[in-house]
Every structure is written in C-alpha cells, then in structure tokens.
C-alpha cells in the first residue's frame, strides 16, 4: 500500500518541521504493508492543490474531512481506501458515498488535554489579568506605586473556588475541562447529547442545557459544530444565564451569535468572554467582538503546543495500524 501524509501546518513558520517529519517516518517504516509513502506540505496550498497531489495512494492522512469528500471525489480517486484528518473536528460529509466506495474515515483525538488547558488559560486571564498587572508594575514610573497602589490590582480579581463550571458538550475536551475545573475547587455541571456513563463522570452533575445556562458562573462550550449547535449561544440563551456569567469558547465560532454576545458584554449582562474560536477564523477580518474590552480573543491556537502535534502523529498512526489490522477506531 501507498500512503500520502499531509504535514506542515500553515501556523508553523517552516513548511515541514524536521521533528514532525522524523516522527512520521519512524512510524511508517515499522509498517511492512506500506510499500511507499510521501510527505506533502500543506503550507500555503489550496484545497485544489491538495487534491491534485493525490496519485495512486490508498491512504491519505491529514486530508481534512469535509463536504468535498463526495461521490465525485471517490470516482476521481478510486484507489483511496483510508482517509484520516489530523484534527479532532470535521465537517459534514457524504457518509453513504464513503461506504459505497469502501473508504474508512477517521479523526485524531489528540488535543483534549491541551485544548482544556487553554480553556482554563482563557478563564484565568479573565479572572486575574496576569499580563496586564505585570505590565503595569513593570512600566509604572517611580512614585506612582506609593500610598498602597503597589498592592492594588488594575482589574477585578475573581476566585474560582466554590463557583460552578457549566460545560456544554461532555466529550473528550469537555471531560478534561471538568477535571481541571474540579481541581480549582469548582462545582461541575454539564449537558451533552447523551448521558455519559462510567466512573470517570461520577463527579459531574449531568443536567439539561437550560439548567447549565441558569446555574453556571462559567460556561465552557466544548461541543462540535453542526446544524444543531449553530448559535446555541444567542439572545434567548444569554437571557437564561446568570447576570455576570463568563463564557469560554475554544471550539468553533459558529456556536455563538456574535452580535448577541457583543450586546450582552457591552450591557454588562455577561461579565466577560474568552474566545479562541470566532467567525474571524474563516474571514480573517475584524469583527465587532474585538471592540469589546471584556472579550479576550485569541487566534484559534488552543491546539498548537508542539507536544500535542507530536501526539497527533502517534495517535494517527495508531489509528492507521488498527485499520490495517482490521479493527478500525476513531471512525467518523
């Protein structure tokens, strides 16, 4: 079998990171059924260029799973039997076409820990403004810090102990957010499409989404983006929240009606928002939320630690090995 590996994420300065490349090769050389493989950089490549890079490979890894994986795609590439996205998320696609052509599609659940860590980083920034206070103390002229000013923070400090973390979407990331929130002494409640069973969920009170909205001091959005979750945070759902609540979104911008959120932030209905995902992810343009001083916005980087990217390679190859052995996992 032949494999085509897409590497060199555009967020990295180098198109092919040598250590990432070495990790791929280390794994691939151990699979005797792989006759040949190619590492192809996606850096500054269009969707069309990515597809044009496919020759007669049976295995595509790092090829994002989306709507273009349809009947026409499989007809153009009849040799393809296995496609894996290196992302945890994926867009709607033609499952029936994949099944008709005997193609297995998988995702790579590599980043739950790191995305949960970033979720808490957004929350802690809102609670403590560490960098702002650091800049203040480092840049204050002599004399400004006298008369007790030295011991006064420039912004409100918020203790998480005893407060309620509400999680919408109790999947891999949501569970890690719950664990981290509990370690801060927070009470954890969550809603999900299906009740989660098992001892790892026992410390979480699973409730309806409306109850999460009503009871939570902090709401973390950890669900996938699909038609049923589009704008789950809107004017109506915001009205159900506590006054002064905090929203954190490390998932997808489509989960939030951004105009409604901006209004709630400006009016004081909500205390703050921490957003690693917004509609700017797609447009790369200024959005009104960026004018809200109580919105902390980052450029969709929760996934980015290098350690997590190495783990993505390891998990993707473990998934490929499982498919080769006839018991595929992480099938979407």
Q: Can you walk me through this structure?
A:
The chain has 332 residues and is of the alpha/beta class. It folds into 2 domains: 2-111 and 306-324, Rossmann fold (3-Layer(aba) Sandwich), CATH 3.40.50; 112-297, Rossmann fold, CATH 3.40.50.720. Helix content is 34%, strand content 15%. The protein has 12 helices and 12 strands. The protein has a 7-stranded parallel beta sheet, sandwiched between helices. Helix 1 packs parallel to helix 12 (306-324). The model has no long low-confidence stretch (mean pLDDT 92).
Biggest beta sheet attributes = 7 strands, parallel
Work out the count of structural domains.
Answer: 2
Unreliable segments of 5+ consecutive residues: none
Strand proportion, as a percent range, falls in: 15-25%
Oligomer: single chain
Per DSSP E runs of 2 or more residues, the count of β-strands stands at 12
Structural class: alpha/beta
Under the CATH scheme, which architecture of the largest domain would be assigned? Answer: 3-Layer(aba) Sandwich
> Would you state the CATH class of the largest domain?
Alpha Beta
Overall morphology: globular
Radius of gyration, in angstroms, nearest whole number: 22 Å
Give, in spatial order, the strands making up the sheet with the most strands: 8-7-6-9-10-11-12
Average predicted confidence as pLDDT: 92
Distance, first to last CA: 22 Å
